Amino acid sequence: MKKKEHKNKPEEQEVELTPEIEEVVLDENALLLARVNESEAAVREMNDKYLRLSAEFDNFRKRTLRERMELTKTAAESVLLSILPVVDNFERALDSIEKGMDFQATKEGIVLIYNNFNDFVKQNGITEIEALGQVFDTDLHEALTKIPAPSEEMKGKIVDVIQKGYYLNEKVIRFAKVVVGE
């Protein structure tokens, strides 16, 4: 025996479609289908734009990396071309020493080479860190040792420079190695 199920829902009634209602339903379906097609087209278009933009960015990144590598190569080239005259002068000085030329002339030649090289270094933005007699600063100096200060005013100051320190355009590229008085 089957029990009859009672539902609290109202029973669905069949509605007979009149030609007017059928036309409205078809129009709404056509409108919904058109909107779906428009949305799908918009999604395809956005996806295509995204893929193109992604590929364009990837190409830009690769091109920029390649240009940066080329720039570093050419930047080193200009520095090396500037240093070649100093190398030539050193070769002349070595020839002069081997030939046993005048000691004083050789010394003057080496001093000229040193000055030439210092000018080259300064033109490329390198400057020396002033250290001797200055207050010890860990941002600029590296203390190798401490010794008793020769005078009271030299306590905490640099009494000797073991190795000079240098800036490259206001950035420390090598700390000065110093001896500090205590």
3D architecture notes:
It is a single chain. The chain has 182 residues and is of the alpha+beta class. The protein has a domain at 127-182: Nucleotide Exchange Factor Grpe, Chain A, domain 2 (Roll), CATH 2.30.22. Helix content is 55%, strand content 16%. It has two helices and six strands. Strand 4 (166-168) and strand 5 form a beta hairpin.
Query: What percentage of residues falls in helices of 4 or more residues?
Result: 55-70%
What is the C-level CATH assignment of the domain at 127-182? Answer: Mainly Beta
Main sheet specs: 3 strands, antiparallel
The shape is elongated
CATH-defined superfamily of the domain at 127-182: Head domain of nucleotide exchange factor GrpE
Please give the count of helices: 2
Number of strands: 6
> What's the end-to-end separation, in Å?
111 Å
User: Structural class, from secondary structure content?
Assistant: alpha+beta
Spatial order of the strands forming the largest sheet: 1-4-5
- Report the C-alpha radius of gyration, rounded: 42 Å
The CATH topology of the domain at 127-182 turns out to be Nucleotide Exchange Factor Grpe, Chain A, domain 2
How would you state the average pLDDT, rounded?
86
Please name the CATH architecture of the domain at 127-182.
Answer: Roll
Strand proportion: 15-25%
